[in-house]
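Trying the structure run again after the queue cleared.
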Amino acid sequence: MNGRQGGDPAKLADALVEPAGRGEPPLRFAADADAVEAFERKAEALLAQADAHREPSGSLAHDDATASA
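Done. Tokens:
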């Protein structure tokens, strides 16, 4: 590294340590604004896929299956 990176390593370290100390740390961590935007784009794409296939995916249970199963 040349010391000219956009991110502050000390801030990153603090941001990683704080959630790691929680009872349930996050499964994924977005380390900067660009990563947050990438997470959001991925989440939107996944939701669009789920919506596009909701009807066939939601109707695959046996006809005699109960709703509580």
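The two ends are 55 Å apart (CA to CA). Worth checking whether this holds up in the mutant runs.
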